[in-house]
Design a protein that fits this description.
Elements (H helix, E strand, L loop, with lengths): L3 H16 L5 H8 L9 H14 L5 E7 L1 E2 L22 E2 L2 H14 L3 E5 L6 H14 L5 E5 L5 H9 L4 E3 L14 H12 L4 E3 L2 E4 L5 H13 L4 E6 L16 H15 L5 E5 L3 H5 L4 E7 L17 H10 L5
Parallel strand pairs: 1-4, 1-11, 4-5, 5-6, 6-7, 8-9, 9-10, 10-11
Antiparallel strand pairs: 2-3
């Protein structure tokens, strides 16, 4: 049984979250510390789903991501299949521009709301902008174009915007500089660059594993909000055989859903879109309204995907959103 004082505190937190007042770190830790395998989290899921109806106008959306280039990476992030040290990816390749344009148009025609071009740091901003211009010319204006790449400066942000990109996906990953080979200061600098640019920011708490503490997760939710992310949420770490963190396993679906609910309640009306990846019906029930469909080079797998990663297509994503009651 949950003590009455805890129930009272929980009700206060949920009232604040659904009213759009945001949540403090202590309140987030309180939510994230709940036993996700019990019914005590059900009111949290219900409140977050109600917040999604209010703050996202109950709209379900699709984020379609194309991994453009596939090559070994010297940064050796301990969860990523691209790490040079893990010898999973041993040669470099990239999709030709024409194929990226064709697949982008297909995704848009099928119902994607964003087309994301995901590239490694070595691909380069200028080359990405050239590709972005080609894709943007063929997309309906209502479909947004997003970039997911490495670090860049103010000039790079302006280049991306002028090339037709509306959004950048960027995140300060959990245990950045420990489980990643990236300088945390450089990562934060890029987030500052995006915040002062005309580009929108999408920032997920990621890659979430079972070992991450409630304090770590709360800090990253608040960091995303501090950089004025209009899209937030969470991404579970997928254990890729051969990577150093694979033996730590995967976070439970209900724990991921609780993190999604906390993100939704903390974000309020300024964060209209909450994304979960990999796809999870439980997380949709807890306030996520964005699902991701991927193809091409995928750091959560040992091979290039020529169609849709894990057979999760645009049609499957739309159906999952519809089943949860979102307007699609």
């Amino acid at each position: 049984m949950v003590p009455k004082t805890t129930l009272h505190t929980l009700k206060d937190i949920l009232d604040r979250g659904t009213s759009g007042d945001g949540l403090s770190k202590d309140e987030l830790v309180t939510l994230l510390s709940l036993d996700c395998e019990t019914d005590v989290v059900e009111p949290v899921f219900e409140a977050a789903r109600e917040a999604a109806r209010r703050f996202s106008s109950n709209r379900g959306r699709i984020w379609a991501s194309i991994g453009v280039d596939y090559q070994p990476c010297p940064l050796n992030c301990r969860f990523c299949s691209f790490g040079q040290k893990w010898e999973i990816v041993t040669s470099a390749s990239a999709w030709p521009d024409e194929k990226v344009v064709e697949r982008s148009v297909q995704f848009a025609q099928q119902g994607a709301h964003w087309i994301t071009l995901r590239t490694t740091q070595d691909y380069g901003v200028s080359r990405l902008c050239e590709l972005g211009l080609s894709v943007r010319r063929e997309l309906p204006s209502k479909v947004k174009l997003a970039a997911n790449t490495g670090e860049f400066d103010d000039a790079g942000a302006q280049q991306l915007f002028e090339a037709g990109f509306n959004t950048v996906y960027h995140a300060f990953r959990l245990r950045e500089g420990i489980d990643t080979g990236i300088n945390p200061a450089e990562r934060l600098h890029t987030l500052e660059v995006i915040a002062r640019s005309p580009l929108e920011l999408t920032y997920l708490v990621e890659p979430v594993g079972p070992e991450h503490s409630t304090e770590e997760l709360a800090d990253e939710i608040l960091r995303a909000l501090s950089f004025k992310a209009t899209g937030a949420g969470a991404m579970a770490r997928v254990p890729v055989p051969g990577t150093p963190l694979a033996n730590r396993g995967r976070v439970a679906d209900r724990a991921l859903a609780l993190l999604i609910a906390a993100s939704r309640l903390a974000g309020g009306p300024s964060v209209t879109d909450i994304c979960v990846h990999p796809p999870s019906p439980e997380a949709l029930r807890a306030g996520a309204n964005i699902l991701v469909v991927e193809t091409g080079a995928i750091p959560r797998d040992r091979k290039e995907e020529k169609s849709a990663w894990q057979q999760f297509t645009i049609h499957a994503a739309l159906e999952m959103l519809y089943m949860e009651g979102y307007d699609v």
